Amino acid sequence: MTASQSAKKISASGGPKLAFRPLPVPQVDIRGFWGDRVDAVASRTADILYDRCVEARMLEQIDPDRPSPGVVIPFHSPSPDEAASQGAEFTGSTVTTQMFWDSDWGKTIETAAYSLYRRRNDSLERKIDAVIDMYGKLQQPDGYLSSWYQRIEPGKRWTNLRDCHELYCAGHLIEGAVAYYQATGKRKLLDIMCRYVDHIADTFGPGPGKKKGYCGHEEIELALVKLARATGEQKYMDLAKYFVDQRGQQPHYFDEEARARGTDPKAYHFKTYEYSQSHRPVREQDKVVGHAVRAMYLFSGMADIATEYGDDTLRVALDRLWDDLTTKNLYITGGIGPSAHNEGFTADYDLPNETAYAETCASVGLVFWASRMLGMGPNARYADMMERALYNGSISGLSLDGSLFFYENPLESRGKHNRWKWHRCPCCPPNIGRMVASIGSYFYGLSDDALAVHLYGDSTARFDISGRQVELIQTSNYPWDGAISIEVEPEAPVEFTLHLRIPSWSRKAALTVNGAPVDLDTVMGDGYAAIRREWRKGDRVDLDLEMSIARLFANPQVRQDIGRVALARGPLIYCVEETDNAGQLHRITLPRTAKVEAHKEQNLLGGVVTLSAIGSKEAVENWESGLYRTDPPATEQAKLKAVPYFAWDNREPGEMLVWLRDG
Amino acid sequence: MTASQSAKKISASGGPKLAFRPLPVPQVDIRGFWGDRVDAVASRTADILYDRCVEARMLEQIDPDRPSPGVVIPFHSPSPDEAASQGAEFTGSTVTTQMFWDSDWGKTIETAAYSLYRRRNDSLERKIDAVIDMYGKLQQPDGYLSSWYQRIEPGKRWTNLRDCHELYCAGHLIEGAVAYYQATGKRKLLDIMCRYVDHIADTFGPGPGKKKGYCGHEEIELALVKLARATGEQKYMDLAKYFVDQRGQQPHYFDEEARARGTDPKAYHFKTYEYSQSHRPVREQDKVVGHAVRAMYLFSGMADIATEYGDDTLRVALDRLWDDLTTKNLYITGGIGPSAHNEGFTADYDLPNETAYAETCASVGLVFWASRMLGMGPNARYADMMERALYNGSISGLSLDGSLFFYENPLESRGKHNRWKWHRCPCCPPNIGRMVASIGSYFYGLSDDALAVHLYGDSTARFDISGRQVELIQTSNYPWDGAISIEVEPEAPVEFTLHLRIPSWSRKAALTVNGAPVDLDTVMGDGYAAIRREWRKGDRVDLDLEMSIARLFANPQVRQDIGRVALARGPLIYCVEETDNAGQLHRITLPRTAKVEAHKEQNLLGGVVTLSAIGSKEAVENWESGLYRTDPPATEQAKLKAVPYFAWDNREPGEMLVWLRDG
């Protein structure tokens, strides 16, 4: 079966009426703030990803009939400079091959796909076509496809789901396939992946003789939902649901699998199945635990299944997990997972700033999860958080020009945390690349009779609702300015509800429809204003959000932030950098009484709004006598200037600090 | 040559008149605060050290004619509980033998020696005698003595001074030998070590055919000075000077030695000879760098040589290094060496509290260094620091009952840093043991016509000056009280100068001699009051030091202490513990306006003065909505109670904090 044979099956058959699905990327044209970001990815990042992946020329040497582990070339070969910046253990000559390289290809193809839609790039398209051709050659007659297992560990497929990323890789190739199909209309990879998924569905599931397993690194679940939506194939959706439902059931699949391999399940490197959120069935989970990216991908898949099946048992679990994450385990930037040890969560309220892991992928994963919670209906609880992670902890991972990356996103730096060209575990660059390149799909949610506007910004969306084509044009300088004008242009009058998010950070919002004020109190629900009417050509909605500057304080149980304050304006979290302020940022105090002012700086960092204030600073003079003394330090005035967190480390390297001392 | 043959040679021949040498331990009887500490060591620690060392029975199996590496038993075998508390890599069955075990025996013998003087313990004395007998059997005909090189690496002696602690072990056995001789009058080990040192002097030195090396871990230098002082043998002093002078000279001995072993000097694990302070000649060093204990031992040896040879070039270098340590690289507790990585120094002003390494041995080493700086004359600059390290960062390493130990001495704990019974690198227990047991020798410095009183506390000292025997009796409840009464009891009238330290932490001091007030301004020099007179039986000096409570602030360049305040009273630094205060100590603020009061608590922690104040605390109520909000946290009153830092973790495990938030 190919995609074309089964298109649209699921929209006819399954899912509750109120499910809000994202618009496909090609249906939203992005300008303004996000337009610049997408252009950076389309013009720089997409090619960089391909070049870095292909440096290994792993795929070019494939001879599917003759597995040849001896000739594998490392997937990526950093320059000596980069190697040095990434720690001594990583040298150009000793990079090891990685079992999850197909996933990096999947995300690279996905980024390329969205970028090709944005900006024609014949050279890149030819190269991606060639990669797809090679995957086609690699695929085995029964549909199986894994460059690791076919070339490095032949004969061992499906023997270690816990550790070896086999279904995870399939998931990313599926996402790449769907994106490439949507962006280019080419279905070769989609057909390859459908054949592979058919094989997976024959191998796993509730039926007799099938394996009862699931992947140690979640991803296949949300990918199968995407594939089901793109192909209309209910079987794929059901397989996604199976993987979600089966996770953490007893007897534990990973135990049995380990014993089948002849190893002791207790010898598991990460000690606890919390690492992969398989410590208990998903509906019984109430704490976000383990590897942060895995958690986000699982919860994303769960949210999709909750949406598609109207499954409230999943929704209840997801709300508990959401509470746990957002009230105890979340950086103010939308970063998550403080520890490098498990790339994930530690203890409640443990949020170290300088050593924050806060992997770019984890924040991207939070965007995925939050966006999928919106599938169950517009709710600012999720959309505000999606916006927080989008504008801060995720895009901080990509330099403004699209060429350099962060893996960790700390909230404090002494000057040595700088962007790199690549990483020994290159998951983040293609992840932030594909997220940015597909940003249009996060703007809107479409149900049978409603459109939810989750994000604001200069853009044009096209969609069908109640059988009518509608164009929706946002004009705005968001996030620098809170004035948003929305023109609704249906081909013919059509009734539907327009849901408009009123962000919780905005202290005042004003809404008019065709110039007539709307009393927000009468139309608000879950943080969205709902306007139901018959929309006609030329209808115009104006929303004015007060883009206020806020001082933010952390729950006092967060010991690392006690006595500190962070600055925000609209959805943006700010930080101070050494280049704008004298060094030793720890000495700065922002008094409660200090006035904080916003300044539009057109020529700074691609055009940003900066914040300034007169703070104070401990003086370092007169300390000759020793390190400690009974006289408190004198203080002096300190002008401070803050820039959006996402834009840090795009100039001279230096110290950075989000949480200023509160005075 | 044995000790008896050459006694007193050096006091007749060498050294400047103004050298102040410590009194031997048996000449000072200690009561009061330090008496309790010494009793804990004599009644518990000394036996524990022996038992732990002998668990290995390494020495009992020695057959010096037949090196038998196969039968070596680990030097120490922790219980599973201890192993668990010390990290996963340390299990009872996989402890590796260690090349520096002779040093642990040396320090154990030294602790036992001082303890035997304090308190008769026939069983322990018999056991130590047996250990000494075994060392006698092990010693080779040419005098060489090393259980590691004789049993584990036969034939490789003197091939890796950089890494293998060979002279370091000799040094600690020398210190043990001197102590055992002084405490028991038994000279067997002293004679063994003299024979060994004669061999070392034949092997190393400026003469033709001798090796131009020195030890990677300093210790032999200060040990040789002790041996020279105990035996009067100038040759030992000169060898100490040679090791000091030779250090860091080019061509670099460690380079040449590595090449002679057939290894690349650049392959050195620690990358830089700063690790062992051999990166440049000692007189050219101006930064404290590398391994903190090594640095302290080197500087101690340098100070001894500066004292004995009147060498101002060394003194100038030592003062530079002292400045660097005390104005940029010192915890307020007298702890040093923030990093576990090199067990030593990092960057100026880098003093993390929770992750502070601040090894017990390093603080003990600072006591050693400071006390030896006093050899060049009384100077409160050094004595105040010696007192700081003594009362805080060093004895924090020993539980009040003498049975449990800290290796690291952080200034903040979340509750998981607790005392252990032993350690895989057991250097600290015998080091703090021997320092405490020999505390009397740190109280006084004796020159030809002066006695300096460096430390205060209930005690009796006996010494000869200008041919007269003198007894000096201190009566005091120091450090809990600042009133000190000193009776001077010469056998006959004798003129000498009595130097009395006026600690810099005391804001007011009053001094009387036989009831007559002394105008301190007229007698002060380098922080000491100097009283020269003919002392007669019954003379009495009264010193009253204001035991004031102080708030201490760190240089603002120490980012970890910015906006924080520490409490001190007299020489003691205080901390708050969870058991006396509610948890989440980070939430406490001590307002500048809060009155801090002292309370003598006879039944707490063996009798201490606690401090109390009414502080404030961020409330954790009303944070249901999320981790971050625009309303600052409400504050509530918080009664806080602080205990001396050295006494922490002697009750229920819990959080601990030295640096409180300053409000």
From TrEMBL, chains A, B:
Gene Ontology biological process terms in this record: carbohydrate metabolic process
InterPro entries to which the protein is assigned, alphabetical: 6-hairpin_glycosidase_sf, Beta-AFase-like, Beta-AFase-like_GH127_C, Beta-AFase-like_GH127_cat, Beta-AFase-like_GH127_middle
Species this chain originates from: Mesorhizobium helmanticense
Annotated ranges, domain Non-reducing end beta-L-arabinofuranosidase-like GH127 middle: 451-547
Non-reducing end beta-L-arabinofuranosidase-like GH127 C-terminal domain segment(s): 551-661
Stretches assigned to the Non-reducing end beta-L-arabinofuranosidase-like GH127 catalytic domain: 31-440
Protein name: Glycoside hydrolase family 127 protein
Transmembrane domains' residue ranges: none
UniProt xrefs under Pfam families: Beta-AFase-like_GH127_cat (PF07944), Glyco_hydro127C (PF20737), Glyco_hydro127M (PF20736)
